[in-house]
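[job 0412] stage=fold_complex status=start
inputs:
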Amino acid sequence: MSDAQAPENRRASAKVGKESKEGKDSKEGDERHEAIYRAVSDAIVEQRLKPGARLREDALAEVFGISRTGIRKILQRLALEQLVTLTPRRGASVTRPTADEAKDVFDARQLIECGLMPDVARRMGEKEAAELREMAKRERQALRSGQQSVAIRLSADFHVRLAQLSGNATLAEFVERLCSRSSLILAVYGHRGHLGCESHDHDDLIGYLEAGNGERAKAFMSRHLKAIEASLSMVEEEENVPDLQQIFGG
Amino acid sequence: MSDAQAPENRRASAKVGKESKEGKDSKEGDERHEAIYRAVSDAIVEQRLKPGARLREDALAEVFGISRTGIRKILQRLALEQLVTLTPRRGASVTRPTADEAKDVFDARQLIECGLMPDVARRMGEKEAAELREMAKRERQALRSGQQSVAIRLSADFHVRLAQLSGNATLAEFVERLCSRSSLILAVYGHRGHLGCESHDHDDLIGYLEAGNGERAKAFMSRHLKAIEASLSMVEEEENVPDLQQIFGG
DNA sequence: ATGCTATTTATTGTATACACCAAATCCAGC
DNA sequence: GCTGGATTTGGTGTATACAATAAATAGCAT
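[job 0412] stage=fold_complex status=done
writing structure:
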């Protein structure tokens, strides 16, 4: 069964709905959707749902105890964020990023995240630094305890929080999307046991930012991202059907 | 009448559907959705649908001859792009950008579009330059013939095409979203008769790019965007109800 | 036996019906 | 006449039923 049903459903009470006609629907329904969205999104980012995995509407609907209507909404959102691919009459599946897409994503991060560093440095305070250090710490812990997928997500969270501190909500949202996709890319192309982000890096970065040294932070972020990208092994494991040509085509 | 109903509706045949039961549904349905999406999106960008305008699902469903289901899908997509605002039990309305959002958007454009210029300059060829000049020309024509809303959209198209020429699809998509929102911002905060983008600017920019002078183009784009932003009158015409506090509160 | 076609099946696409909530309206009471 | 609450109404949220299509399978002919 590989990795089905969410191992750590802190939220997402799982299959209520059906016969819970008495007490309304517990949550306001809207929050429930958000929770489900997050559950699926996290599962993808943490590679519990692997690239290429089919996401059947019925199945999801049953697991989460809502009807297909709500599931479709969530799948569409995920599709717009390019975490899932929606093929016309074939349904949804977890996106398998191509090498080109990976390059685009990291180039974009290079441009945006680095460009944001001066702003972040300017708005960095005690509280923010403390929060970031806490995040970096949790990330390190996850890594040490062998929970690589969780660490990947925490690392993404760190980068997103950083972007949010720039004060530009729009760019922060872009970074959020880029980080999600990066997690997917790491999950596919990353070497096992070698997480892209060394959490030590993150601590160093906080230092520069706390010192208000935006330029230094920018340069560091640039190297940091380059290091992540360089750690990837960009071999497109084409499991389609081109083997014959390659093997016999001679 | 300003400029109502699409002056050049190349696509979006408008209200077929209903009695077209004979030949299947003409288009593959998927393309139809895309067409409707574009029709609404364009209408918003061209200010035929003004900020604050309510978008009732029934009404849209009837106009386009599909059911609410399809409309909802489209509205959600527009909401994710922040062109429409979806309030929980109140339905959809065209987003009224705040001053803060406007600042974020233009800061983001400053960072991304300027950062893209060197890449664009590097990949600029004869054909691309010719295409861009053609676009600039059409924009100028629209402006001269008084079709300001159309000109706004064409201007956005120009910036988007430029970003696409960078070769980074992800960043190009971001620019697309930023340009849509910019059009909305211009529609709200722009002075009538003074379009943000002087089309002459665009021609100059093409020149620098064609000469392969990325840095020059970058600096020019920066000034260009600053000029647009500066041309806005950022008065939030608050038509809410806070007058009482302000007037008597002292 | 193999290749082609027809049927079946599994799954998505779409519409519609119903439930539910919020606002507008109307009526009663002060 | 104005305020407060109950009722009506308009519109969204959700589920379910049905239609359509592509893949899988079985059957038939060569």
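[job 0412] summary: The longest helix of chain A spans residues 99-122.
[job 0412] exit 0
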